[in-house]
Design a protein that fits this description.
33% of the residues lie in helices and 31% in strands. With 233 residues, the protein is of the alpha/beta class. The strands form 5 sheets. The protein has a 5-stranded parallel sheet. The protein has a 5-stranded antiparallel sheet with strand order 12-11-10-14-13. A 3-stranded antiparallel sheet has the order 15-16-17, with no helix packed on it.
């Protein structure tokens, strides 16, 4: 699921942007949540769990560049996309590390092409994560998950820093949550981040320095997923 925010004070422009976003992610078969703002919020923490932020550079006669600078000073990995009537803001957009600049009215084909590039880029993938209160009251980036283990009727998220988070989310649900994020099952009670797999042996794998069993039942599919992840790295 993607958490998306739009800051736009023009109703017709907001509707067009929202419809383009909905159509794009519907084609991707990806669930989204859209939050809308007609002014620049005073409390920037509302964007804490945001994956994509669309900003109109002119909101109620206020320039969005300074607002964007405030956001990236707190959330430097947030993916920002500028929407504007004014091409002169293109250069300014680089100062807030905007991923894309869309001129109004937004061309649907250009939007779809550019959005494909954005969501497949390494910066965005690093920012992507799990937002679920059953796991934590904050976003857990996929890049920080080493593996997920089913143990004592609970699932445990083991992070790259060694911390372990206990959750009530069933392992079968985790399979859909991390779909497309380069995770795979080597064994019935494990789901590992393929980015951290260091070696694959006959009956075991090493995820960093952690030894995890490799089941004959899962081996072929696991190796296929591992090879695919390496090719896309």
């Amino acid at each position: 699921m993607f958490n998306i925010s739009i800051i736009e004070d023009c109703k017709s422009d907001y509707i067009q942007t929202k419809e383009l976003i909905i159509d794009f992610f519907k084609n991707k078969k990806t669930q989204i949540i859209i939050n809308s703002f007609t002014s620049f919020p005073d409390n920037i923490s509302v964007f804490k769990n945001t994956d994509l932020l669309f900003i109109d550079m002119k909101i109620n006669d206020k320039n969005g560049i300074e607002f964007g600078k405030n956001i990236i000073s707190i959330y430097p990995d947030l993916t920002i996309l500028i929407i504007s009537n004014y091409p002169q803001y293109l250069i300014d957009g680089y100062t807030i590390h905007a991923s894309r600049y869309f001129l109004k009215p937004i061309d649907p084909e250009i939007f779809a092409f550019e959005m494909n590039e954005v969501i497949s880029g390494p910066a965005f993938l690093r920012h992507r994560g799990i937002i679920d209160p059953r796991a934590a009251p904050y976003k857990i980036p996929y890049s920080e998950i080493l593996y997920i283990e089913y143990l004592d009727r609970k699932t445990h998220i083991v992070l790259t820093n060694g911390n372990r988070i206990e959750t009530t989310i069933p392992l079968r649900e985790w399979l859909s949550i991390v779909e497309g994020q380069h995770f795979a099952q080597p064994y019935k009670c494990f789901l590992v981040n393929l980015r951290y797999v260091r070696s694959i042996l006959a009956k075991d794998i090493y995820v960093k320095d952690v030894k995890i069993p490799l089941s004959k039942h899962f081996k072929k599919e696991f190796i296929t997923a591992y090879d695919r992840a390496r090719r896309s790295a």
